[in-house]
Write a structure and sequence with these properties.
With about 230 residues, this protein is mostly helical. The protein folds into two domains: about 15-80 and about 145-225, no CATH class; about 85-135, no CATH class. It is about 85% helix and about 0% strand. It has helices spanning about 5-40, 45-90, 95-105, 110-135, 145-170, 175-200, 205-230. Helix 1 packs across helix 5 (about 145-170). The radius of gyration is 25 Å and the shape is elongated. The N and C termini lie far apart (about 65 Å). Bound molecules: zinc ion.
């Protein structure tokens, strides 16, 4: 396993957050823009479009927060259960646990003698922490916090959703669909490229991928909206 330098570890951590933020903003842009385009395509006025868009922003941000909170909480619950089981095993069978840790270090390339020494010293220093980190892969630095994660995803969703709303507010009343569509595709291309760069993938491919799905989503709602407009109008 390649050893990461101090700055690379922080870089990996920051990339994780950046990617989550880009994905959250993408969701916000695509779902709110599609809603705005659909309602505008039905021939409604700017006020109705903005009310629908705002309701979509709030509903989307809340559901993102709820989803993130539930998923991170259940991950945290699973980690806590693993740690409690490990603590029990350390109390009941300390010799077997020490042997287990020794074998983990051996499998990572240490000689038996050195592995025994390292395992003994780390167990003496912090037995649960060593098993959590080296056996279960749980470490404080990567553990997400449910409330923090929920707030970040709601916020990034809302930031993304504001883009089509501002455009719908400023566009000529009869041109809302086209203005929102163009502005949305441009911002998706920028975000897609950013997300791809953060993940070390090709910028253009990342930009095209996100823009394609955004265009598809808006086309679908525009068709539904215009069909609705025709039948109701
Ligand atoms: Zn263990």
């Amino acid at each position: 396993m390649s050893r990461l330098s101090h700055s690379e570890i922080h870089m990996v951590h920051r990339i994780g957050w950046l990617r989550a933020a880009v994905l959250g903003a993408n969701d916000g842009i695509v779902s709110t823009a599609s809603l705005v385009v659909g309602v505008a395509a039905a021939g409604t006025g700017r006020t109705e479009v903005l009310i629908a868009g705002l309701a979509g922003l709030v509903a989307g941000a809340m559901s993102m927060a709820a989803g993130e909170y539930v998923s991170v909480s259940s991950q945290t619950d699973a980690e806590q259960a693993d740690l409690a089981r490990e603590k029990k095993e350390l109390a009941e069978t300390p010799a077997a646990e020490l042997e287990e840790l020794t074998q983990i270090y051996q499998s990572r390339g240490l000689t038996r003698a050195l592995a025994e020494q390292v395992a003994a010293q780390l167990t003496e220093h912090d037995a649960l922490g060593s098993h959590a980190r080296d056996e279960l892969g749980i470490s404080e630095t990567v553990t997400a916090h449910p409330i923090q994660a929920a707030l970040v995803s709601a916020l990034t969703f809302a930031v993304g959703a504001v883009v089509p709303l501002i455009v719908a507010l400023l566009a000529p009343p009869t041109q809302i669909v086209i203005f929102v569509a163009v502005a949305t595709l441009l911002s998706l291309a920028v975000l897609g490229g950013l997300g791809a760069t953060a993940g070390g993938a090709g910028v253009w491919r990342g930009a095209l991928r996100v823009t394609f799905w955004g265009a598809l989503a808006m086309a679908a709602t525009a068709i539904v909206g215009s069909l609705f407009g025709v039948t109701v109008g």
